[in-house]
Amino acid sequence: MNDPRIDPISPEQRAEPVVVVAYDPAWPASFERVRAVVAAALGDLAVGIEHVGSTAVPGLEAKPIVDVDVVIRRTGDLDDVVRRLAEIGYTHLGDLGIVGREAFRATKELPRHHLYVCASGAPPLQAHLILRDALRDDPALAAQYGRLKRELAERYRDDRDAYAEGKSAFITAVLLRERDGRDKRASRRRRG
Fold it and tell me: Which long-range contacts (CB under 8 A, 24 or more apart) does 19-24 make?
């Protein structure tokens, strides 16, 4: 993914080594700064703006880049969202191969972040929220994920794609565990 037209980070940022740092208590404030600007630009087009990814999990090591999911009512609103975000400096990059999640290259005036737009209920949004909440709710799981991320950052310091791929089995396992747990709880409620 070296084509800057389809990469959510700039070519300069892509050239930087993968670095995982200790949790920074300033990350929620960075998210709030981004949230406020995006919310003002989108108005009622945004039904929610979520802090997702590792920087949204207190105590978890992360790359120092805040992940933000903007939730819209329906995909039919996307053209208006793209236009309004462009007015404040964002570049729409398309779905980058993940259907249901539109990526934007962030403006440099705000804290470093990745911005995605998803329709309410979209599978990529649900996956981000489920993973975030599972990590927030289970400190041992978060610690395990933190160890994996540090190991991958050391091993793949100069290969962002390999770093991301190295996390995928862990993430998939968490999502499946959470789905199975929800299914079992729903089944018990139906029988109860």
Answer: 19/63, 19/64, 19/153, 19/157, 20/61, 20/62, 20/63, 20/146, 20/149, 20/150, 20/153, 21/61, 21/62, 21/63, 21/64, 22/61, 23/57, 23/58, 23/59, 23/60, 23/61, 23/62, 24/55, 24/64
